[in-house]
User: Which sequence fits this backbone?
């Protein structure tokens, strides 16, 4: 089974999370503990962490559930970034950079979700094979 580190979706989500962690330090002090900075950090790290955790689940349906949670976390990051920009916490160029990272992570995540959905539709239940590999000739999918 593949490590989450091998997944482009996780790599992009991690890059987004690190960027959000760094950017959130510049938010006003009253936003740090329970405001937008905190929500941004939690949503961004949630996306990466759910991909990693789901990758090591035993079934494709479990993995899909974690990927869907990661997808909603990316939606939350996108909304927070837009609000933070309009509130004046981040400059427009920072918003554009974070939006581009979020879009890339989402694009990779959607591709991974499509692959998992195809495996589920084909009747493949467990996660014993790597994403992106083809069944061996003469053997049904594991």
Assistant:
């Amino acid at each position: 089974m593949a490590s989450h580190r091998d997944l482009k979706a996780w790599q992009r989500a991690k890059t987004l999370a690190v960027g959000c962690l760094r950017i959130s330090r510049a938010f006003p002090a009253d936003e740090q503990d329970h405001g937008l900075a905190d929500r941004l950090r939690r949503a961004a790290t949630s996306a990466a962490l759910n991909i990693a955790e789901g990758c090591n689940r035993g079934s494709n349906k479990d993995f899909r559930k974690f990927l869907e949670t990661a997808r909603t976390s990316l939606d939350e990051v996108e909304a927070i970034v837009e609000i933070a920009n309009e509130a004046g916490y981040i400059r427009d160029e920072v918003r554009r950079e974070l939006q581009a990272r979020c879009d890339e992570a989402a694009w990779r995540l959607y591709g991974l979700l499509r692959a998992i959905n195809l495996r589920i539709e084909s009747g493949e239940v467990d996660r014993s094979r790597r994403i992106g590999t083809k069944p061996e000739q003469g053997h049904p999918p594991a």
Summary: Residues 133-142 have pLDDT under 50 and may be disordered. Residues 92-121 form the longest helix (30 residues).
